[in-house]
Every structure is written in C-alpha cells, then in structure tokens.
Write a structure and sequence with these properties.
By secondary structure, this protein is of the alpha+beta class. The protein has helices at 22-31, 48-60, 85-89, 96-105, 124-132, 163-173, 189-200, 232-244, 260-269, 306-314, 333-339, 370-382, 392-395, 402-408, and strands at 2-8, 13-17, 38-42, 63-67, 70-74, 107-111, 136-140, 143-147, 155-157, 179-183, 204-206, 212-216, 225-227, 248-252, 272-276, 279-283, 293-294, 318-323, 343-348, 351-356, 364-366, 385-390, 412-417. The chain has 2 domains: 2-19 and 231-417, Enolpyruvate transferase domain (UDP-n-acetylglucosamine1-carboxyvinyl-transferase, Chain, Alpha-beta prism); 22-227, UDP-n-acetylglucosamine1-carboxyvinyl-transferase, Chain (Alpha-beta prism). It starts with a strand and ends with a strand. The structure holds ligand EPZ.
Length: 419
C-alpha cells in the first residue's frame, strides 16, 4: 500500500504543464490493435492505467516501448484473444479490447472490466452494440465469449450517452461492411480525439463532435503516429487546486474550448483567473460564493470534476448543492471530507449539500476512487496540519507524477510506501 503525506496549508505558486489525456490515450492503445504494424502515440501520460493496458496488449502479442511519453505498439503478431483476466479486473478501459479484438480476430474472451467504484457501471450498451453489428455473445458469470463471422454495419441508438460504449462500438464499426450510424454518441473532447485518430488510420467517420456519427466501413486500417490532446480533467483539477490554495499558478494545457461549463462555474463562484492560448492563470480570489453543480454529458459540467470542485464549495460562504446525474456511487468521498471538517449532507446517491466556509484539518483519509483521491490531495494542501491519504496507487492511475508537479508548485507532499 502506498500513501501520500501532505503538510498544509500551502499556497501554490508557479506553472504546471498537464499531461496527455488519459481518456483519449486508453481507447487509442486498444484501437492500435486494429492495424498490423507500428502505431506511435505521443504525449501519452505515464500513468498506471496506461502501463496496465500496455501489459495486457503485450500478453496478446504486441511488442511495445514506452519512453518519455512516446508509446510504440507493434501489433503485427497478435496471437491471443484472451486479455489477462487479472489485469482486466482493475481497469475499466480494458473493455475497449472487446471492440478491437472482435474487429481484428473475430473473437474475444474477456471478464467484466473493473476500475473505479463510482457506481455499478454495467456494460449492456457495449454488448448491445456488438450484437447489432452481428456478434454472438455467450456470457458465463462475469466471463464473456464474443464471436463474429462478419461485422455488418447497422443503425445503433445508444440507450444513454456512454463514452466508452461510443468508442468501443465505433472501433468495431470502422471495419464492418457497409454503413453504421451511432446515435446518442458521446462528444467529450477525448471522444473527438479518438475519432480523429481512427480517421487518420483510414477510417471513414463523419459527424465527429456530434451525437450522430456516420461510419462507412473500410477493409483495412494502417498504423499511424498520433499526438494526444492535453488532459481536460487534470487541467481542471490543477486549476481548482490553485484557486483553493489562494495561490498564483498557471496551468499549461488548459484548452478553453474543452472547459465551457467548468469556466462558467468558476465565474459563478467568484474565482479570479484569466485565459491565454491554452493556459489558465489563477490568481487569489477574494470571497468564494456558494455554487450548485449538476454534472452532465459534455459540454455540461464533467462528472470527473464534481469531486475536486467540492473543495471550493467547502470554502464558499453559504450552502452549495451537488447533483451527480451520471453515476450513483460518486459522492462517497464526502465522508472523507467530513473527517477533515467539511460540513456535508449526503441526501441520496445522487445529491448532497455543502455548507461553507469551514476550515479543513489534516487527518487520515482514503482515496475511494481516482478523482476522489485527487480531491483529498487538494483538501490536504489547504488543510491545517498533516494528512495521510492512503490508496496513492489509485491516484497514480490517472495523474502522472502528481508528487513532482505539486512539489514544483510549492506543496509539501511525500509518497510513503508501507512495507
Ligand atoms: C468514461 O467512463 C471515463 N473513463 C470516466 O472517467 C468518466 O467518468 C465517464 O466516461 C463519464 O464521462 C474512460 O473514458 C476510461 P459512461 P465510462 O459509459 O465510459 C452508464 C476517470 O475518472 N452505462 O459514459 O465507463 C454508466 O453506468 C473515469 O477518468 C450503462 O448503463 O462511462 C453511467 O451511469 C471515471 N451501460 C453512464 O452510463 C453501459 O453499457 C455514463 O457512463 C455503459 C454505461
């Protein structure tokens, strides 16, 4: 077990550059299986989820090299259609291997993916999409045996907007015979980046950035070089940390167009910031006003920033409401915040309220999921005293070099490894 020990309070100062987008890189690693030969991905974040997914691909026959955020995947000889069950269990993005192995080999045997516990996270939309494209699914417990003789294009309307279901079905449809239409497709920045990656490989996807994707199947895709966009959620996390610490920081890689709803909420809460080409400069704010957050699909307020944003709500002068509409298990971090002195009421699995401002005090807390862990780091930076956050490896899943980046901004943070 690893934990972070943080001494607060600290005022963050300086400039930080966000890494490449985790949620763009993960589907691209999986989809690299669609083409024989060497795919080269640049600006890949060096995080646990990437390293675990690369390990799974190596088990399938991929030859990989990952250095200085450049990931090379030689998928000439993909022998196996059975991704390592243990690794699949702790990585939600491993679900993306269904679409790529189905399109590459016509078969895949995989267990239900794991990942952050932020709700039940069913995979029915993925499976329905593959069946509509002609696949046969044999489920035994949590093991899925999926085969297809010939992928045939079809019209698919997702039951609800799903990011990885959109990406999973898409990477299969691009090699299906004929036309496929995916309605209620997700349009997050990382989904758009993924569509652009597939098109660079030779796919024919139209309607990118809309909820209605039209795909014309092609026979073959070629391996490409591709540079990944900056991580929208990491950029937002650091902006929040700067505001919460009342410091002066610049977040490099903050693409204004990716953050419309988030920026609206920063304005509403009274944060002091300005934007200049792909950077946000944070300055100390006078008083933070209470703000209600309702998470939505993009371009609404992102569910992945709901937890980090709550730290600002604990320091706002009044009562703020949270309505987490996407997941039913994403408010548990508030129990950890209340151990630090936050005044929170969890009304139901989707709604909570926070009364501020309350001072936060260092104590022992747990990272229940990736973004909850990042939230506790921000809370510990502004808290009075020392905090120990266990589950550091959960935070490492999505934040590259979090200790180095925060230390360079003046935080007092160390990693402790328990024997
Ligand atoms: C992706 O998860 C992200 N992960 C999540 O980021 C993010 O929170 C989520 O999208 C929403 O933006 C990756 O991209 C690897 P969904 P995903 O399918 O695709 C329900 C992070 O912190 N649903 O869009 O798994 C689901 O339960 C992670 O970086 C079904 O019911 O999310 C949820 O309520 C956490 N059936 C809603 O749809 C399905 O088959 C949206 O989930 C699929 C999803």
């Amino acid at each position: 077990m690893e934990s972070f020990v943080i001494k607060g309070p600290a005022k963050l100062e300086g400039e930080v550059k966000v890494s490449g987008s985790k949620n763009a890189a993960l589907p691209m690693v999986a989809a690299s299986l669609l083409a024989e030969g060497k795919t080269v991905l640049k600006n890949v974040p060096d995080i646990r989820d990437i390293r675990n997914l690369v390990k799974i691909l190596e088990g399938l026959g991929s030859k990989t090299n990952f250095k200085d955020n450049v990931l090379t995947l030689d998928n000439t000889n993909i022998k196996s259609c059975r991704p390592d069950f243990k690794l699949v269990c702790n990585l939600r993005a491993s679900i993306m291997l269904i679409g790529s192995l189905l399109a590459r080999l016509g078969k895949v045997e995989i267990s239900k993916p794991g990942g952050c516990f932020i709700g039940s996270r069913p995979i029915d939309i993925h499976l329905k999409g593959f069946e509509t494209l002609g696949a046969k699914i044999d489920q035994r417990g949590e093991i899925y045996n999926i085969t297809v003789d010939k992928l045939k294009g079809a019209k698919i309307t997702l039951r609800i907007v799903s990011v990885t279901a959109t990406e999973n079905i898409l990477q299969t449809a691009v090699l299906a015979e004929g036309e496929t239409e995916i309605r209620l497709a997700a349009i997050e920045p990382h989904v758009v980046d993924f569509c652009n990656f597939l098109n660079k490989m030779g796919a024919k996807i139209e309607g990118i950035g809309t909820h209605n994707l039209k795909v014309t199947g092609v026979k073959k895709l070629k391996p490409v070089e591709y540079t990944i966009i900056p991580d929208q959620i990491e950029a937002g996390t650091f902006a929040i940390a700067g505001i919460a610490s009342k410091g002066e920081i610049v977040v490099n890689g903050f693409i204004e167009d990716h953050h419309e709803s988030f920026l609206n909420k920063l304005e509403e809460i009274g944060a002091n910031f300005n934007l200049e080409n792909d950077r946000i400069a944070i300055k100390p704010s006078r008083v933070l006003k209470p703000v209600n957050i309702q998470t939505e699909i993009y371009p609404g307020f992102p569910t992945d920033l709901q937890a980090p944003f709550s730290i600002l709500q604990t320091q706002a002068e009044g009562t703020s409401e949270i309505f987490e509409t996407i997941f039913e298990g994403r408010l548990n971090y508030l129990h950890e915040l209340s151990k630090m002195g936050a005044s929170v009421v969890i009304k139901n699995p989707h709604q909570a309220s926070i009364v501020g401002p309350t001072p936060l005090y260092g104590t022992h807390i747990s990272s229940l999921d990736l973004r909850a862990g990042a939230t506790l780091i921000i809370a510990s930076i502004i808290a009075l005293g020392t905090s120990e956050i266990n589950g550091a490896e959960i935070i490492d899943r999505g934040y590259e070099n979090i200790v180095g980046k925060l230390t360079s901004l003046g935080a007092d943070i160390e990693r402790e490894v328990e024997e």
